Amino acid sequence: MTHETTVGVLCFPGSNCEHDVVAALEGLGAPARIVWHSDSDLSGFGGLVVPGGFAHGDYLRPGAIARFSPAMDALRDFAERGGPVLGICNGFQVLTEAGLLPGALMRNAGMRFICTTVECEVASSSSVLTAAVPAGTVLRLPVNHYEGNYTCSAGDLAELEQNGQVVLRYRDNPNGSTGDIAGIANRTGNVVGLMPHPERASSALLGSADGLPLLQSFVDAIARGGGASQASRVAS
Amino acid sequence: MIFSVAVEIRPLEGIANPEGLTIERALPALGFSGVREVRVGKLLRFELEAADEHHARHEVEQMCEHLLANPVIERADIRLEAIGATK
User: Fold this and answer.
1) Does a structural domain hold residue A228?
2) A96 contacts in B (CB within 8 Å)?
3) What is the pLDDT of residues A19-31, one digit of tens each?
């Protein structure tokens, strides 16, 4: 595993949260740099973030086009080697379309674009995003999406629950997500996707600093030189 | 051969369809009271040049698998019609 500590933040045409993610990570002392989606070399990074926005205009389906970008091939290799990968909002949609996380994100139940702050409960510490946050911790995090209604097959859901891969749940489900799921991890815990925006909850001045412990976990995983083997695998 | 292709992307059976539900709830307000099971999908139309219908269908199936539909939540129904010879 690489010992690079810089975080690469992927930027597609239509991404719009990349600067927020860089600012939040730098606030934690973690160097971060924006990478254009056509870059197929991500070798200088110790962690990767797919930020929020509307990659490729969300045409066809959110994430459907973005997953074919050269940077996504490199991201897949990185993830398969155990590298820490985080997909936020549109980034979560991209990771499900790419098959790096199970399931899909549909239109919100109620057909409303939701832009508000919700309470989420950490459901598992078995991921690079939640390793440092005890299960049961309630966090106030902004959500900002039209397609955040998580769904997956009954088999996938049983597997997610059984393996402690559901890392974050809504306390008051805003979008109809199966199992109140706000965020999930892959089997090895090094790839995480979530609809809420931890980077927008990075200062009390912005209404909440509750995203910082999540991003700190991610930064810690990178400092350890990876995510999969080091993240606590104790399901809670 | 040139084919006219229509790909209908439909939500899988058993998958919630918020668009359809919203329309289903709106119609009675306009006096259309007998509507049930509204499902909203997508229809893609394009022309495709291929050796024959077998090859054309196979190619469209590959397109659906790799890009046009998300098999987790959608299925694709393909309709093909020969509309002319390749020039």
Assistant:
1) no
2) 72
3) 999 999 999 999 9
